[in-house]
Request: fold
Amino acid sequence: MTERVIRLLCDAQNYPWGKEGSDSIISEMGPEASGKDWSFSETTPYAELSQHLNAHPELLGIVPQKFPKPVEGKGEKHVPFLFKLLTCKQALPLQIHPDKKLAAELHARDPSKFVDANHKPEIACALTPFLGFAGFAPYANILKNITGIPEVKAFLGKLPSYSAFVQEQKEGTLKPLVKDILAMNQKSSGILETAKDALKAVTGTQEPPKERGGGDAQGVVKSLIERIDAQGPGSVFAGQEWDEDQKKRIGVALKKTQEFYAGDPGIIVAWEEELIEMDSFFMNLVELKPGEAMYVQEDGLHAWLDGQIIELMANSDDVLNAGFIEGAEKDDLNIFVDAMTCDPRPGETYKLKRSRWSLSQGAGATVYQVPAEEFSLYHIDGENASTTIKPLNGPTIAIVTSVSSSGQMTDKTTGKSWDVKKGQVYFIGAHTEVEYGPGVEAWAAFYDDQDREQTGDMK
Reply:
């Protein structure tokens, strides 16, 4: 008989933006997650745990019927989502994931680069305090920031697209402005030469430096950081509707992006007013506390900045990058800007609602309201009592993130139990009733059969 609960063996991926060594939660999770030889270095960035599953079809439940060909360009039999732990000490690329129509076009055009034809909505759920850029802030906020901060106004003021947006805030003027900024050469776009005199006249600062590549964005941001250091964030952002803590956090985040991406014009796009309710210059900068989650739809502009998260998304590897990455690795800017969603709204609206799950018993699970069809997320935190999850029509993948002393997971369908440890990852087949014992904390991604409303009243 096929096992219905299967331990998965997972690997860590080493990306330069990952937190290094013991700063990364993956240094704690990796040995049990891999279940094999585990090499660890204090100077190696550990970024994500990837799931490798070769499932038996009967364990997928109704998924093959719901997704007869889940992801064009990949095998037939697999879960419809990707689930991982991700850590970052610096911004990931400024990116979007194409919708199904664009993904199909890109896959047909260049299947070696765009390896599938699926979309990729995603959520990030914080394990530690987390910062991430997500979507455009409201038009009124963008206007205030790019006209009210002298360095930014002087930097952008010579662009015809800037004037057009200032006169009329709408998608048809925002996208050209964003495109002009992202098109700037990191070495020198020439715009600095026409803006530097205005900058000096307005702010009294010296000519913006041109170190580490000499990009215009670098000079503007460095000038702003120097003014924050000299005058304090309260004075520099006196005209902005942020409290003192928000102003301080803006200064910290500016320094972080400048430290790793000096000269990248994506810094300008990714800055506006929203840490909880604060933006950068154009985008929302959303702060998540542990347990909070946010959702970014297909074609949604985003870049994770700092922290450790559970990341869950539709099964696709397609991505378009436009910032915080080497120039040669950036994608076609015309495609990027045309595709990106232009839906200006407060950062708080990206956060997901959560509640006790009606399909859990005992200590109970918290379930997140996820708009995407392919996946949902639940959290078990059974400090002193067990939690039972009723049988679901689709598969689940669970990551054990904490075990108080000793803990167990039980397949109540067969009565078989496993001793579980922190970092272990399990595949749970469809139609399996599973119990997490006392002291076990786990995060689980599962297929959400919306016909049965498996998220209770959350959909």
